[in-house]
Amino acid sequence: MQSKIKPRFDLTYAKLSAIGFLIIILVGAILLSLPIASRSGDGTPFLNALFTATSATGVTGLVVYDTYSHFSIFGQSVILVLIQIGGLGFMIIATMFLLLLRKKIGIRERSFLQESVNTIHIGGVVRLVKHILVGTLIFEAIGAIILAIKFSREMGIKPGIFNGIFHSVSAFNNAGFDLMGRYEAYSSLTRYSGDAVINITIMTLVVVGGIGFIVWEDIYKNKYKFKKYQLHSKIVLFTTALLIFGSAIAFYVFERNNLLVDTGVKESVLSSLFQAITPRTAGFNTIDTAALSEGSKLLTMMLMIIGGSSGSTAGGIKTTTFIITILSVISLVRHSEDLNIFGRRLEDSVLKRAYSIITMYIIGACVGMLLISLIQPGLALSDITFEVLSATGTVGLSTGITRDLNVLSRLIITVLMFCGRIGSLAVLMAVVESKNSVLVKNPLEKIVIG
Questions:
Q1: Which residues cross the membrane (predicted)?
Q2: Residue 71, SS3 per DSSP
């Protein structure tokens, strides 16, 4: 009688995702540490290269070096590739190569793809991936052309084209890396705070990349017929619009007597909209983040926690998680047992997952804050909180303390960026996940909450 041989490697998606991103980061770090990757030709210390590779693959944007000033064209190109892989996810990239090589994509690969893009149904997932790849190419190409035309006028044709491509990919993938160090180190897009074309192009790319692949597919199939959209798409679009315009108004109120006091109407509107969009994991800034009022910094941190949408290039707890949590509070206040939105009732398991994600996010951020505060007590708690939330939410905004972090603090931020990209819950599942089913349940007993 022939016994069944247990597969040697039986990886779940959580484990595969963690291992895959870790390998990509390590390869990127090795390439960025090479002498050819730096302008000086002296190479980059491996820890700093690892930090940069994690930030790029995690589409975060926190940097210990100005990208333009420190890295050569080769180094910048490596960062660009890492951003693209990190934004789309290595499973989508791997599927792209399988499709190009005309290889068969089995059920196991399709189930991994389903989890990678966070789609509800496994059917049609390969078609969805094809649409994602084509859509990404189209959006990034359009953005690159518009930005290249603008940049070429002041940088020259070749630098203008490269900058157009780099910033388009960085914006679409919500990465926040920039090459504006040619004018002023660590200045991001502050030079273009009043430029409507660049602001609108970057904001559009960030929003499109941040709403998620599932929403793309819904819009592609149903066009402008909002009633036919899936519930997920309705929630994402509604929440995104609410956060953008509500936050823009709030930023203007907070900054009208601060950073916007001497600006015109056009620049004030652009800056308020940009500052409302960028904290939700984009990482670019057109105004000095460190000079924001306390109210604006608090609002920015709240938006960094929320982040973008599920199945997108963005990070954070996600818009759906945020809105479900709000709905649960409303439901509890109204003594209702169901979560209802847009005429539909949500599953009870969704709320459990939402609370788990938020709990893991808060625990990870708090541990990071405590450790950095212990290691470097001279840093202001508000700056540490901003930095940690930026890393955990894969945002990339900073009050300027990234370069002041010592070795241990940078390692903590590196770990937080890694967890933020693949999800803290996914990291925990990759470590402790068990498929053993529980056959016997413990006796039920009630406790007092609140």
A1: 12-34, 46-65, 77-101, 128-149, 196-215, 235-254, 302-333, 354-375, 411-432
A2: strand
